[in-house]
Amino acid sequence: MTTIHDYISSPGEILFEEFLEPLGISQYRLAKAIGKPQSAISDIVHGRRAITAEMAWLLGKALGTTPQFWLNLEMDYRLKLIDESHMPQVTALAL
User: Fold this and answer.
1) Considering the domain boundaries, does residue 1 fall inside one?
2) Is residue 91 part of a domain?
3) How confident is the model over 11-33, as pLDDT tens digits?
4) What is the chain's mean pLDDT, rounded?
5) E strand segments, 6-95
6) H or E element: which one contains 89?
7) Contact 62/34 with Cβ under 8 angstroms?
8) What's the structural domain count of the chain?
């Protein structure tokens, strides 16, 4: 059975597959460059930690991207994970 998760790459997967691996940068080296523990990078890569605004800024500086790039990846990922069938019924307000 195919699930939505088969089609969504987490920001951590993108960090690893599109940046660290091709550039030959270890998680440890990235962590040292941004002054964070290696476990923080590992947690992001393995989907156990979200990318915060601070981390987005640090990743942007270290990898030559913008903080918005990382925050947009995180936001898009989180929105795609929402299971609408478990959300409450909401009636649009007339403005």
Assistant:
1) no
2) no
3) 999 999 999 999 999 999 999 99
4) 93
5) none
6) none
7) yes
8) 1
